[in-house]
Each structure stands twice: as structure tokens, then as C-alpha cells.
Amino acid sequence: MNCSSCCAAATPSSPALLARPRGGLAASCSTTTANQKVLFLGSKQFPRITYSRASSRLSRREVIAFAGQQPWDIGRFVKTLYFFNGPPNLLKIVESIISSFTGPASSEVPKKMETSDVVLVTGATGGVGRRVVDVLQKKGVPVRVLARNVDKARSMLGPDVPLIIGDVTKEDTLDPKLFKGIKKVVNAVSVIVGPKEGDTPDRQKYKQGIKFFEPEIKGPSPEMVEYIGMQNLINAIKSSVGLSEGKLLFGFKGNLSGEIVWGALDDVVMGGVSESTFQILPTGSESSGPTGLFKGTVSTSNNGGFTSIRTKNFTVPEDLSAYDGIELRVNGDGRRYKLIIRTSYEWDTVGYTASFNTTKGGWQSVKVPFSSLKPVFRARTVTDAPPFDASNITSLQLMFSKFEYDGILNPTFTEGPFELPFSSIRAYINEPITPRFVYLLVFRFVHVSSAGVTRPERPGLDLSKQPPAVRLNKELGSILTFKLKGEDLIRESGIPYTIVRPCALTEEPAGADLMFDQGDNITGKISREEVARICVAALASPDAVGKTFEVKSTVPFSEPYVIDPANPPPEKDYEVYFKELKEGITGKEALEATPAQV
Questions:
Q1: Taking every pair of C-alpha atoms in the chain, what is the biggest distance, in angstroms?
Q2: In what residue span(s) does the NAD(P)-binding domain sit (predicted)?
């Protein structure tokens, strides 16, 4: 029988289909016995595949390889393919195998992996919000805006600011997918208060302050905006924000271990004989609780040399864009492993990869920053791969391999058995190293509230000496009461936060001397521009996290504050103020105090 008839006789399930000529790969056939044919792939690097004419089904004994003459387990090969959602493109495998032996190593530097540093500003068409947008843009920080009215937002902010169209009072308009990539939020949403008699188109009466007009609520109620709106906003962003304790992807907390399905993915897919497995050890962790175990035996026979375990594709991609990397808790054995992260549902595709070392004889935490990931396909760097997208993670993989990347060998590789217990895999957040304007490091939620939120119900308080909003709290739909409830939602959410409580807002320029205080006791005024700068500074400050504070200018209400535009005051170092503040002080402590004499 000639070669063409031999190849034509291959069944669809036969690996002879791998021999389709492509890219210079030569296929030839040779007769072995009356009932057997052997397909050669033109190089001793490839498996020699023997099949029986008597049966179209291949058995393990009928698959022989050159390197070491080790039997290739085709049954395990087929199981592997179908475990991970079906087989990959077989031609692509052949091309990749050829290039791995004949192609030159990559000399081009791959694209740097980046994570998002977008700041979301809500209430951006208000007096404070639009100034926050302006401050961020001047600092070169990417901004996204949540707005109800497109035309109003465009007229105020310009055509280039990315918009999310939504209303915090309407949960169905806040699709969590729209908030992917957000690492920081400045929330300046506030219920609208205006004069009963109406206002000018540019709201001149409102800008003078509530003490100069008889106020009423315009639009949705304080409960809808300050409380329900806050609930809706937190729910929308919480799935994509970075919590300070990280996000557990694998571990034995509740039922989390059951949400990830691991399977072995070894060099059997390329003709090798290495074998690994994933197990759960009921008492294997450092606290004698359950832990995962990646174990196996690695061999270089048949040109193999790697074992791995990989998760099935996640039903819903993990959005880790608010985090900085992956942290593994492992019991090391002194070997060097790989973490591979994929952002595509394709089975046979680029994996964003980083190697990590372990120390023998003890539990340790290993951090793999997203910025260290390299786009790799079959141990070759892919220089034209898209940047790593942390908002669309579809699977994880742990690997022990003879190869690093581009022909470099793993210095810790040895053949034989190995074990790597790992008790958890979580996304982590870096803490800022420098205090000012480090926007890439940790999620922050900065909220603009109001001084006076604890005072309407405070025992013994002389309301006649309080600002109008405190005196008129009930008449204004319990505005301050619901602002306080909204604050409490933030404090209870687990999101790293800063709550700024400005005193009466003015249109004066920033630059006046300031007083920061806690406990909700001070009164006075402060520039909207100054509040915007404080909010932006708080985004980057570790000393502002978990703190609630009031702030005002030291300039009396009766004195206007002006500056010389040609010689403006220097911008303040707000870090000095943040460092003096304490966590846990809200002013609610006084609500349970013994009533004082008025």
C-alpha cells in the first residue's frame, strides 16, 4: 500500500490526523507487519504512532515513543482533553511542537502587564464632584464618571471624560459590569437642596449657602439618595473592589473549596509520561485543617518534562482588577514552580505566567504580582499578546516543569516524585509605599458627607446654636439622619474608606488655613475646591483609611476669603492632618451620653 492510501485509512480518532502536512512538516508511512502501519513525523523528536488495521481503536500498547521507549497513555490523553471542555486545535499543537524545537528564542521584550488605576467619581456634576474630576485630570489620573444626565455631564465635564450612565436611586441602572477596573471611588452624590422660591439657572442662591434662603428638597428624597442610593452603589462596586484582607479564590473557608474544580494537565498531551494529581488532605494544613495538594511524578521520557494542575474554566470570570496580584500559601519543597493565569475560555491559548521559588520545610506565603506576569504559549514568550486583563480571569494553573521560558531551564528541576501542599490562593492588595498620589496600589472609597450628621438626635444639644441643616433636619426629610445611615453602610461594608464631613460649602478658593476635627462638633465654612483636593489626597493616603472627620476653614463666616491669582498659596500637605486623625471616632458616641444642661 502506498503512503497516500495509508494516511487515508486513518480513522477520525486516530493520531494519524496529526500528520497532515503543514509548515514544512513531512509525513511518511512505513509497513511493520501485515496488519500494522507506522506513521513517522519526519523527526525523532516526535512520537512514532503505531495503529492496527484490524481495529480503529488505539490501545496503550500500540503507542510507542522514541525517547526512552516509554509507553504513552492515550487513555489519559483523551481524558485530559475532555476534562477541560474538549480538545484543542490539533494542528495548532503540531505547529507549536515544531516551533518549540526549531524556532529561535524570542528576543523581543513583551508588553508590560498593567492593572487599572481608574478613579470613579459619582456626583460629578455637583459643586464638589466636578472639582474632584478637574483635580484628578490635572494630575494625569484616569477618570470615569457616573452621571444621570449625559447632556449635563458633557456640558460641564467636556467630551472626553468616560461616562457610566446610571442613577444611584435606581438599582437596575447600576450594572456591576460597568464598574470593572475601578480601583478608587470618590462619592460626591448628595440630595439636592434648593430655595423654595426657586433659583437662577446657575444656582446662585444655592451657592451662597443654606443660611441665606428657605430650603426644600428638590428631586428624590434623602432616604432614596443618601441611604438606598448608598446601598445600591456599594452593591454595584463591591464585586470589583479590592478588600483589604484580599479575595479568597481557593481555600477551605465555608464552601469555597468546592467552587474550583482542579484537574491534571501533564506532558501526556505532548506524548510524555509525567503524571500528577490534585488531592485534599483533611488535616494537612499548618492549623491541622484541610489543604490542597499538588503531587506527582515528573519524567523527561518522550521529550516530556512537566506536570500541572489546572482549574476548569470559571463559570463567571473573576474580576481581580482592584487587586495587585495572587498570593499562595504553600508548604515549600525548595523547587521552582509556575503560576499560570488565563483570560480566555479557549483551552489551548496564551497563559500569563510567573515562576516562583519555594523554601524547603515550612509554610510560606508567595506573592505573584500581576505586573510580573509574562504572556507565554508552550514555554515561549508571546511578544504581541494583549496586556494582562485582571478583570477577566478564567482559570488558574500550577506547574512544575523542566523549562522556564524561551529555552531557559528550571534550575531546581529533578525527575521523580514531588509534592506541593497549598492551603489557599487569594488575590492581594499592596499597601502604598509612598504617601502621596499612589493610585495603583489599593482600593479606596472616599465619601463626601456633612458635618452635623450626628447632632439632630444628640442629647442636650442646643439646636438654636446649630447650622440650619441641623435645626431643619426633619423638615428636610431627615437629611442628616439618612446621611449618617449612609455612612454606616460604608463603615460596615468592609471596603477601605475615608469619610469627609465638610462644614458649610462655599465658592471661595482653596488655600485658607484649615481645622480638622473628629466627634462632629465644629461649625464653620470651607471651600468646595479645598474639599475636592482633600478627597483626592485621601485616595492615596494610608493614614486616611478607616477615618471619619470634619473639616473647616479657620476664616470666619463673616469674612470672605480671597487670594491673589498671580500668587496663589501653596498646595497643602494633607498627610499632616490625616496622620493626627484616629479610627473609630464618628460622633455617634455622644448619642448615648447623658443629656447635658442647655
A1: 111
A2: 123-196, 443-542
